Amino acid sequence: MKKSTGMMLGTVSAAAVVLAACGGVAADSKEQVIIYSNADDEAIEVMETTLDDKGYKGKYLIQSFGTSELGGKMMAEGTDIEADVVTMASYFIESAQTSKSMFVDISSDLKPLDGSVTYALPILGNIGSIFINTEVLQQKGLSIPKSIKDLTDPAYKDLVSFPNIMDSSTGWLLVQAIIKEYGEEEGEKVLAELIKNAGPHIESSGSGPIKKVKTGEVATGFGLRIQAIDAKNEGLPIDYIDPTEGNFTLTESVAVVDKEGEEALAKEIAKVIATEARDGLLEQYPVALYEGEQVKDEHVPTYLKKWDTTLTVDLLEKHQAFFKEAQR
């Protein structure tokens, strides 16, 4: 998997299928299911291939959005949104359902590991971790970090990179780990020192840190665990470190918009994405989400943890405010 958008908030990703310039659907495409998605190009390719193989070619159109833009449309438009199906960050789906009651029941026989709701099915997951450039660490005489707090050591000054939670939800994985381990008071101090050490290397994209670690511009970074695994398997001097504060996870799910009883085909397509496309998505994003799923040992994090409550947009905004306080 090569994560192209880094789970960005606020930037429109390249459209998987380009609709009309205004984002509308042509009059002759009413029989097609419209899918709005914040997924990366790799995930969309898996979905399209699976849907086509299962006989749905020509029966759907996919349009890609940045997470923040699609989330804004969902929260503003509710069931008036043009989409029949959305694949989206699970916390946005949760918040949109609570606020707008916009999704219908698509429950299935699948048994998610992390609980379940009747209006959405998880389709992929991402896990955060530290990663390092082993050659740069050696050149700089730096020890291998074991925790996020280790990266606040002045020895790492200007040699740390991580995503900004204001722009990338990958950054939320970092903030969750800090608050969970240290609480808000001490956690703010830890984050403030980390921000100071990162200096100009706080990235707007979740894929920014791994790029800088791969080029050797910095020695260490925080981002998606799979990015470091992929780089290491390519033979680069990259390794991944599961921070003792915990490896937190964000998922993306599929949901069907309430169209007043006209959701039959949309439900079929959503369930194909959640079930038939799951093997391909699991290969690209190796995080077990359902009972019975297996991943390679290297994809099982040492300190898998989760937030105490359901992730929501309100919680994200609270943690973004926490980040802003630490920046002062």
Features:
328 residues, alpha/beta, nine-stranded mixed beta sheet, 9 strands
Q: Spans with pLDDT under 50 lasting ≥5 residues?
A: 1-8, 10-29
Distance between the termini: 36 Å
Q: For the residues shown, what is the average pLDDT? A: 90
Helix tally?
A: 10
Helix content: 25-40%
Q: How much of the polypeptide forms β-strand, as a percent range?
A: 15-25%
**Run of helices and strands:** EHEHEHEHEHEHEHEEHHH
**Radius of gyration in whole Å, from Cα?**
20 Å
* Major beta-sheet overview: 9 strands, mixed
How many distinct beta strands?
9
Q: What shape does the CA trace take?
A: globular
Secondary-structure class: alpha/beta
What multimeric state do the chains show?
Answer: single chain
Structural summary, described in words:
The protein is globular. The protein is an alpha/beta fold. Strands 1, 2, 3, 4, 5, 6, 7, 8 and 9 form a nine-stranded mixed beta sheet that branches. It has helices at residues 41-53, 67-77, 90-100, 134-140, 170-198, 208-215, 225-233, 264-275, 278-284, 313-327, and strands at 33-37, 60-64, 85-89, 121-133, 160-163, 202-203, 220-224, 238-241, 249-256. Helix 5 (170-198) runs parallel beside helix 10. Mean pLDDT is 90; it is low at 1-8 and 10-29.
